[in-house]
Every structure is written in C-alpha cells, then in structure tokens.
C-alpha cells in the first residue's frame, strides 16, 4: 500500500483503521508541542552537544504508519546507502564503493535534519515523482517537523524543521536530498570519481594521480592537513539548501588509513584495529575478573556517557559485547577468523543467546581442493568436484559425460582431461581422476571425509557450508555459502527403490552447477551437493547425498 492512490486524509485514516478526528487529525494538529514531542540534548563524541526532538508515543505511532506507506513510493538512487531498508544497503555497502582507491574524500553536511524545513518537505512531496495532493503533502510534512528558532541573515526566526529522532525524518531527508545526490553524482562521474552518501556523510573517491581540482584542493600542497572544497562544488551543495561542516572535511591518500562511515577501505572493507582490540579487552576483563567487575568498569570508566538517547543507552554489558561482536560479523563476515574467535569466546561466557558460528573449512583450503568441471553433454555441461586424495576427486554421476575435463583455481584456463574410476547412480555419486596428472597441476589441498561419529552429530539446524561453481556465475570464482540442515530423507536418483536415509535437505546454498561440490560440517565433508534450483526452475530443492556413500564408493577402488 502506498500514498499515491489517496486523494485526501480521510481515505488514509480509513486505510490505516484510525479514527479520523481523534487518532489522526487531533494527533497531528490538536496536541500541544509538549504533548507531541520532547526536546533534550545529548553530548557528541567529538565534543559539544546534539539536540534531539523525540516524538511521544501517539505521534511516533502515527509517523510509523505513514512511513510504511511512504516507503513504498520511495525509490532511492544507487549511490544512497543510509536509511534505505530492505535493499541490502548499509555502512558496509557504502564503504565498499570506495575500496582500494587512491584518494578518499569525506564531507559532512552540517545540521542535516535541521536544514530541511517544512516548506522543502511539502514542496518535494507535491513534485514528481510523488505528486501527492497538497493536503497530504502538508500533513506528512507537519507531523515530521517541529517548531524551533533558527538564525537567518543575522536575525532569529521561528521555523519548522525535521525532527532529529523522528521516524519520518530519515526517509524525508533522503527524498529532499535527491536533487543534491543527482547533481553531485553527475559532477563526480564526469571527473572519474565515485560518489556515495550515507545520511549526512558524503564520500568521494578517485584513482587519478592527483585529486580532481574541480572538487577541491589541499590548502598547502606540502601539508595535507587541510582540504578546501572548490567554490563550484561548495556552491552546488549550498544551492540545494545544505551547508558543509568544514571541520570534518578530509582527503586521505592510499598511504594513510582511509575510512568511510567509520570503516577502513584501503584494501577491503574492514573494522578499525582499535575497535577489535577494545572488544578483546572487554572479553578478557570478563573472562579473568568476572561479569560484575567487567560490567562496572565498562559503564563507569569506559562508557560514562556515549551521546545516545537515554532510552537507547545500553545497560547490559553482555549485550554491549554481543552488539560489538555482531558488528564485526556484519563487516567481516561470519567465516572471518577474527569474528569466529571472538564469537567463540563470547559463547563460552554468555548466559543467553549464543552466536551461530559456521563451522567451516578454511577458504584457502576450499579454493585449492574444489575444482570446476566440464563435459560436452548437450553441447556443454558444467559441475563441481573436490579432491579427497592427490589424484582422486568426488563429483556427481550426472556430471559425467564425453570429453570430461577439470580446472583448478590455480590454473583456471588450463583444462585437465579426466576419467571415471567409480560410480554410484543410485546416490548420484562418482569418483574421477586426471588422465595425466602433472605435478604442477595436482591439488594443493584435499578435503577430509567426516567419520561415522562426526557425521552422526549432524542434526536439524546444524550449521554447514557448501562450495561450488554456480553455472550462472564466474567459473573462475568459487562460491562458498553458509546454510543449515533442514531435514533427512530417502531418495533415489536412478529409479531403483530407496533403502536408507541417504539425502540431506538444506535451507539454501546450492545452485545448478554446484552439483558435485562438498557440504562441510566442522570442517569435514558430510555430503555432496546433488540438486539445486536454476534460472528456469527456482522450485528445485537444495539437496545433498550423505558422505557415508562416498566412503562406500572409495572402498571399492
């Protein structure tokens, strides 16, 4: 449901199942300012204070109802990463656009929400592509803004601006900033630069030998401490109704630690070392001095006032630590060794919900042991295989065919002829080997099969890992996915009666082309991928055959 079909406020109130007078118009226009929102200040980390205007419950719920409708009409630009829910955008996706660049420029927009006043919001909502009726645009702007006094041309005037703390403020700020984003992105693109914005943080990166002068320059070429934006660039920002906080403008070359929205981007998106050290120190304090001592030290010495809303200020040390470890997972990924180490320590200490840590094989080992496979069936067929010995690979029986050849990640363009050595059509399994194994092309690593005891520990919801080469992606890049076991079943792949629970069902993690790839549990192979969806049929289940049938096949050699 969106706002566009509605012609007036009564229709919106009816659709939201709200009484038009008491729970719609009165909340918006009848409540006194003190009953609509509360104002207070919180300290900034960088010093000074930040004013917050938090809507009270009645207004907040109304804002949230309207937000649900407004989100359906909002189409964020590709370079906007802040306040964009459900589109896989975050500080991580924002930072990723600037990885490995020679120059990274960060610009802060001053008093971002409070430079967006009632008239700007109403006018933008009445303009394309929204085209809301004036009554609706005015209503949305009114419930999103609060009354304040601002200095304009040397005199103090009463105005209404977006609430810093309101539910509608982030999306409305993005909507009003749309023209700014379009102009700056176009300007940067013409100079060969990448532009992104996350809320009030603008980031621009370039690989040019010198940073483009039309954007700005160093105040002193011999001293890179101060960067000055060009008059043209700064005028573009001011013409769109925003101001630059010059104290936060900085340009960093690749020789320095470059960061975007608090994340390091020199070689990959990463958290700062100091952040990881702090988390390790918190866990160490908890491990050796106990929860009460560590909690007291943290809140009294390390975190007396962090500049957050009072109701959002954490008071549970365990959840503070958990949040920090979760942030590392969000940035570095659940297979990263730093996350896995910290999560393991946290799980040993926590009293509640533990982290689900994928028990995975090292990525370098997987890249060395899992190979790409091709044959000439039906004009060309692809699959995956993995090494369990120096010249012995496991794959699927249906992956075999004429002119069978395999490719290692080390030499992805050099085909090695392969041949079948054993086959189990009932379970769709096969063993293959290279016809002429060359020392330079032998697998740099092999995968270890799970023992009977290790495989028996596998259960519903067990975290596993899949690896293979989906046919719709780059065949030189191994795809590794974390997933879970969703069930066990009996199936046959050659039409003969099934006799045992031979198949693992997975929640996800398989795709056409990954057939023959491994399923790993605690770093050991517990299954072989045999089925997965493809571009033509998304309903095919995620299936793998249990590893005990591979062992039975190897015994026959």
What would you say about this model in short?
The chain is 31% helix and 25% strand.
Description:
By secondary structure, this protein is α+β, with helices and mostly antiparallel strands. The strands form seven sheets. A six-stranded antiparallel beta barrel has the order 13-14-15-18-17-16. A six-stranded antiparallel barrel has the order 19-20-21-24-23-22. A hairpin with a 5-residue loop joins strand 1 and strand 2 (about 50-55). The protein is elongated and about 90 Å long. The N and C termini lie far apart (about 65 Å). About 35% of the residues are buried. The mean pLDDT is about 90.
SSE layout:
Elements: H1 9-15, H2 21-30, H3 33-36, E1 37-43, E2 49-55, H4 57-73, H5 91-96, E3 103-108, H6 118-126, H7 134-144, E4 145-152, E5 155-162, H8 169-176, H9 178-190, E6 194-198, E7 201-206, E8 216-220, E9 223-229, H10 231-239, E10 250-253, E11 259-260, E12 263-264, H11 273-289, H12 291-302, H13 317-332, H14 337-349, H15 363-369, E13 370-375, E14 381-389, E15 392-395, E16 405-407, E17 416-424, E18 429-434, H16 452-456, E19 463-468, E20 479-489, E21 503-506, E22 518-521, E23 524-531, E24 543-546, H17 548-555
Antiparallel strand pairs: 1-2, 3-7, 3-10, 4-5, 6-7, 8-9, 11-12, 13-14, 13-16, 14-15, 15-18, 16-17, 17-18, 19-20, 19-22, 20-21, 21-24, 22-23, 23-24
Helix pairs in contact: 6-7, 6-8, 11-12, 11-13, 11-14, 13-14
């Amino acid at each position: 449901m969106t706002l566009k079909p509605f012609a007036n406020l009564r229709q919106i109130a009816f659709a939201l199942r709200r009484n038009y007078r008491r729970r719609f118009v009165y909340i918006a226009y009848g409540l006194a300012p003190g009953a609509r929102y509360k104002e207070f200040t919180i300290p900034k980390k960088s010093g000074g204070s930040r004013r917050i205007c938090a809507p009270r419950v009645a207004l907040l719920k109304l804002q949230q109802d309207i937000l649900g409708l407004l989100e359906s009409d909002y189409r964020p630009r590709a370079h906007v990463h802040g306040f964009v829910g459900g589109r896989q955008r975050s500080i991580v996706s924002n930072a990723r656009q600037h990885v490995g660049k020679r120059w990274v420029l960060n610009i802060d927009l001053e008093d971002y929400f409070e430079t967006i006043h009632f008239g700007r919001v109403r006018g933008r909502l009445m303009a394309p592509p929204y085209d809301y009726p004036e009554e609706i645009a005015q209503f949305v702007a009114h419930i999103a803004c609060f009354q304040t006094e601002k200095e304009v041309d040397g005199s103090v005037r009463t105005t209404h601006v977006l609430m810093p703390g309101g539910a509608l403020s982030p999306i409305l700020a993005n909507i009003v900033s749309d023209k700014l984003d379009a102009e700056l992105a176009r300007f940067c693109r013409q100079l060969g630069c990448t532009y992104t914005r996350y809320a009030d943080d603008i980031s621009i990166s370039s690989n040019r030998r010198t940073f483009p002068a039309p954007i700005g320059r160093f105040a002193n070429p011999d001293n890179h401490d101060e960067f000055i934006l060009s008059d043209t660039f700064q005028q573009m920002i001011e013409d769109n109704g925003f101001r630059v906080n010059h104290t936060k403008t900085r340009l960093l070359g690749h020789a320095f630690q470059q960061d975007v929205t608090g994340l390091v981007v020199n070689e990959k998106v990463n958290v700062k070392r100091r952040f990881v050290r702090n988390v390790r120190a918190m866990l160490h304090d908890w491990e050796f001095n106990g929860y009460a001592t560590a909690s007291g030290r943290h809140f009294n010495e390390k975190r007396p006032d962090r500049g957050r809303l009072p109701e959002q200020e954490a008071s549970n040390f365990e959840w503070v630590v958990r949040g920090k470890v979760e942030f590392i997972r969000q940035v570095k990924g659940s297979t990263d060794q730093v996350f896995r180490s910290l999560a393991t320590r946290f799980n040993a200490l926590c009293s509640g919900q533990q982290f689900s840590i994928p028990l995975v094989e090292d990525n370098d080992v997987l890249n060395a042991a899992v190979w790409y496979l091709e044959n000439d069936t039906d004009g060309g067929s692809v699959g995956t295989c993995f090494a369990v010995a120096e010249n012995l690979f496991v794959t699927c029986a249906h992956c075999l065919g004429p002119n069978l050849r395999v490719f290692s990640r080390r030499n992805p363009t050099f085909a090695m002829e392969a041949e079948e050595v054993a086959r189990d059509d009932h379970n769709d399994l096969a063993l293959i080997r290279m016809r002429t194994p060359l020392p330079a092309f032998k697998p740099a690593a092999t995968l270890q099969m799970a023992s009977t005891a290790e495989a028996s520990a596998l259960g519903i919801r067990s975290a596993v890992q899949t690896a293979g080469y989906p046919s719709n992606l780059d065949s030189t890049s191994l795809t590794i996915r974390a997933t879970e076991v969703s069930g066990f079943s009996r199936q046959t792949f050659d039409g003969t009666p099934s006799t045992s629970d031979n198949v693992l069902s997975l929640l996800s993690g398989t795709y056409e082309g990954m057939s023959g790839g491994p399923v790993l549990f605690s770093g050991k192979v517990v299954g072989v991928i045999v089925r997965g969806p493809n571009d033509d049929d998304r309903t095919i289940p995620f299936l793998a055959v249990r590893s005990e049938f591979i062992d039975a096949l190897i015994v026959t050699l």
